[in-house]
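Troubleshooting: if your tokenizer reports a length mismatch, compare your output against this known-good record of 317 residues.
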Amino acid sequence: MKLASIDIGTNSTRLLITDYQNNKFIPLERKMKITRLGKNLDENNMIGKDSASMTVEVLSDYQCLIEDYDVKKFRVVGTSAVRKASNSDWFISCVYKHLGMKIDVVSGDEEARLSFYGAVRDMDLNYPDYKAELSGKILVVDIGGGSSEFILGDCNYNLQLVESLNLGCVSLTEKFIGSSISSIPDTNSLSQMQQYVINELEEITGKINLYKPAFIIGVAGTITTLAAIDLKLAAYNSEKIHRHILRLKKIENIYKNLCSLDLKGRKKVVGLHPGRADVIIGGTAIVLGVLKLLDVKDILVSERDILDGIIYTLVDF
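Known-good structure output:
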């Protein structure tokens, strides 16, 4: 049976099509397009017409793929940008009017749960580089465009903590380096951004530290992009990225290099999708803040995320 999920995020709109056979999910298509639905959202509190139009266009392409694959069930989820925008009803109506597609707007907590389920279900948690037993606590970190989710649980999907924070790579970039996005970021703006990230993360990481998680799984575009840069992948390779281990020192070096480049230079970095070049510094600052406040030296990268979690909700196990 063919199943599909669509995640309409702040920075990108993504599609997953799978074939569900004998309790196994076989990925057939994974697509991602930068649509920037959350562009200037913090400033205007509204989804812009251009961003909405671009998203509808991408959704139309995805709808054609869903039909081509003869998908039996699919679910479209709207996350941070659709949640926060004052004109989200207009956007949802616009999509329905043009495509007949219904958007399920999920809460921050539900977004976090879906991300955890997607990341953990497919992960070999007894990973050789980790000392953790299967019973150890797992932290899943999902850094999005407009928000970040932190979910602590175990391999049986028992959740101890679910937190969503309005801190994302797009909103952070717009707040601190958006006005000079094409230039090399100035030291003062970077320092202010880093301190802001620490201040925003302190309460959540303090709660997480009480549980002493065995290890961290990172999902979504910022994390997978850092893995692609670390692996120097000229062409994106999800199999190499999935289960890659990102070391803190490597992330620090990547961050230092990115901060030394203007936008044109960042677009030439091997492994960095040009559409993420303007927001990768903000996203990386969040990753570094999380690892440092949790005193963790590495993060396990997962290509399975909220898209997979959405797929799992379509099936009765």
